[in-house]
């Protein structure tokens, strides 16, 4: 049966055309009829350029109402959205654009300049003659290419279908939180990631969509917008929750107007969530997902996050909850056999939420999808009640401020410096960012020179926060760097060259 996830906007606009839809800060910029009309205009322009169903359109923009009109315009035209993290370096974005085969790049002014420096043309969101009909798509058709870094250092394009987006959104209503037309969702985290994915369920319910005027996460602004708009939902990385709580405590703001804060994307320290619930009340919910199974592997409800009476409340709070309705989750050993209850193994997932594979990468797809299951690469254990607790990552991914950073990618940049002979990158715990990137470097390059070099080639958030000069890297008999030894050394390392 044909379906296009964009139909949810069409239905919301026809059902309540004058309902407030898009806001920049406190100011309304469109009702649902206007939102729909702008999306139809974007679709009209794309189709006038000869776009056909399945063509890719890249979005390289900061958070703004135009992001949503472009996203839905892409879907109205039957095309595929390729949202790119707005924090990426121009060279990194250019690689994604080329790999996706995007026919056009829609970008705001700062990102247009960054791409032009790389020889990649881009343009602002353009509206043409509005289309009358939305191009039908099948459930298995591609809707979104989500680029996530891989262990090889190059991003992989996760193929997200219309079916996956529908399953994710309906599972949110079933397992995470209720949404109504009275609610509002705030885009303080990147719209290219989880925050943008949650736009769909709020469009379905006809809720308001608010982009901060600053375009990002400023605790004072967030609290002001919550108080002004009321019934505010937002997706936040754990570090954002910590910053919001610290600011609120310092200013005495109690978070009036905050309805739901869904956190995920990195480890939440127990002390931080206890402090947050103590200050703001039961407004917090947790989800666990990954690009390959977006936002809907497990969930921990607001009642469970706030509960302090259950005999196992602390263990539950330290978990990521139980499986959401649209997936099966199990823990397996390296052969794919279930491990005994409570033992650690790899987390496997299957269901309509799971990707069909990586874009033009059959080898990586075959590695991730085996025996009908997605092998997440995350390690965890599950108790008798079905609560999943993450224990570690089988890959060396670093999660800093809610953003995924892969050491190999940073190492390759470091190794391109002429005064570096060896480099190894690890993560270490940090109270503000969850983890920070630390580079161990063999060679003559100074920390300042390495910092300049990294910032010229990769996004600022990926660049190491610390550099450690070493004579050699610890290795096993096969020549593999022993990163466990490097992490252990950080517990009491001396002579760190640190940049703030």
Describe this protein's structure.
With 500 residues, this protein is α/β, with parallel strands linked by helices. The protein has two domains: 7-382, ANL, N-terminal domain (Rossmann fold); 399-498, ANL, C-terminal domain (GMP Synthetase, Chain A, domain 3, 2-Layer Sandwich). Helix content is 33%, strand content 27%. It has 17 helices and 25 strands. The protein has a nine-stranded mixed sheet with strand order 2-1-9-8-10-11-12-13-14, with helices on both faces. The protein is globular, with a radius of gyration of 22 Å. The model is unreliable at 494-500 (pLDDT under 50).
Q: What oligomerization state is this entry in?
A: single chain
Major β-sheet annotation: 9 strands, mixed
Shape: globular
- Secondary structure: number of strands: 25
Beta-strand residue fraction = 25-35%
Fill in the keyword field for this structure.
27% strand, GMP Synthetase, Chain A, domain 3, five-stranded antiparallel beta sheet, globular, alpha/beta, Rossmann fold, 2 domains, disordered C terminus, single chain, 500 residues
Strand-helix topology:
Elements: H1 7-15, E1 20-24, E2 27-31, H2 32-48, E3 56-60, H3 65-76, E4 80-83, H4 90-100, E5 104-107, H5 109-116, E6 142-149, E7 155-161, H6 162-176, E8 184-186, H7 194-197, H8 199-204, E9 208-211, H9 219-229, E10 232-236, H10 238-251, E11 258-263, H11 270-280, E12 284-290, E13 293-300, H12 302-306, H13 313-317, E14 322-323, E15 327-332, E16 345-351, H14 362-368, E17 369-370, E18 373-382, E19 388-393, E20 398-400, E21 403-405, H15 407-415, E22 420-430, E23 434-443, H16 447-457, E24 466-469, H17 483-490, E25 497-498
Parallel strand pairs: 1-9, 3-4, 3-5, 8-9, 8-10, 10-11, 11-12, 23-24
Antiparallel strand pairs: 1-2, 6-7, 12-13, 13-14, 15-16, 16-18, 17-18, 18-19, 20-21, 22-23, 24-25
């Amino acid at each position: 049966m044909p379906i296009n996830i964009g139909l949810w906007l069409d239905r919301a606009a026809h059902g309540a055309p004058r309902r407030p839809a898009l806001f920049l800060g406190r100011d309304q910029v469109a009702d649902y009829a206007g939102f729909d009309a702008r999306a139809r205009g974007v679709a009209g322009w794309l189709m006038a350029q000869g776009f056909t169903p399945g063509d890719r359109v890249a979005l390289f923009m900061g958070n703004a109402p135009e992001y949503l009109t472009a996203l839905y315009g892409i879907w109205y035209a039957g095309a595929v959205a390729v949202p790119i993290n707005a924090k990426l370096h121009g060279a990194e974005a250019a690689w994604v654009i080329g790999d996706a085969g995007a026919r056009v790049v829609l970008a705001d002014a700062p990102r247009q300049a960054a791409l032009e420096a790389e020889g990649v043309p881009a343009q602002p969101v353009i509206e043409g003659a509005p289309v009358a009909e939305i191009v039908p798509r099948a459930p298995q058709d591609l809707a979104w290419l989500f680029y996530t870094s891989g262990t090889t250092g190059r991003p992989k394009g996760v193929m997200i279908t219309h079916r996956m987006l529908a399953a994710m959104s309906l599972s949110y209503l079933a397992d995470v939180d209720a949404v109504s037309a009275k609610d509002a969702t705030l885009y303080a985290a990147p719209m290219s990631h989880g925050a943008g994915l949650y736009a769909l369920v709020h469009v379905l319910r006809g809720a308001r969509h608010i982009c901060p005027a600053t375009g990002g996460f400023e605790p004072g602004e967030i609290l002001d917008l919550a108080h002004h708009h009321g019934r505010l939902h937002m997706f936040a990385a754990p570090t954002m929750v910590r910053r919001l709580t610290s600011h609120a405590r310092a200013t005495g703001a109690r978070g009036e107007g905050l309805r739901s804060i869904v956190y995920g994307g990195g480890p939440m320290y127990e002390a931080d969530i206890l402090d947050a619930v103590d200050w703001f009340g039961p407004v917090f919910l947790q989800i666990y997902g990954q690009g390959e199974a977006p936002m809907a592997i497990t969930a921990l409800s607001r009642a469970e996050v706030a509960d302090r009476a259950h005999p196992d409340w602390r263990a539950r709070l330290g978990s990521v909850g139980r499986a959401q309705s649209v997936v099966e989750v199990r823990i397996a050993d390296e052969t794919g056999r279930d491990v005994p209850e409570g033992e650690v193994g790899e987390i496997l997932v299957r269901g309509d939420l799971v990707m069909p594979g990586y874009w033009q990468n059959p080898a990586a797809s075959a590695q991730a999808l085996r025996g009908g299951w997605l092998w997440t690469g995350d390690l965890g254990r599950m108790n008798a009640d079905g609560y999943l607790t993450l224990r570690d990552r089988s890959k060396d991914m670093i999660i800093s401020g809610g953003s995924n950073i892969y050491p190999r990618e940073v190492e390759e940049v470091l190794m391109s410096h002429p005064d570096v002979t060896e480099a190894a990158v690890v993560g270490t715990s940090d109270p503000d960012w969850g983890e920070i990137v630390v580079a161990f470097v063999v060679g003559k390059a100074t920390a300042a020179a390495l910092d300049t070099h990294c910032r010229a080639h990769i996004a600022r958030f990926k660049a190491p926060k610390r550099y450690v000069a070493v004579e050699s890297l610890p290795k096993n008999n096969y020549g593999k760097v022993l990163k466990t030894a490097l992490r252990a050394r950080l517990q009491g390392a001396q002579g760190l060259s640190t940049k703030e």
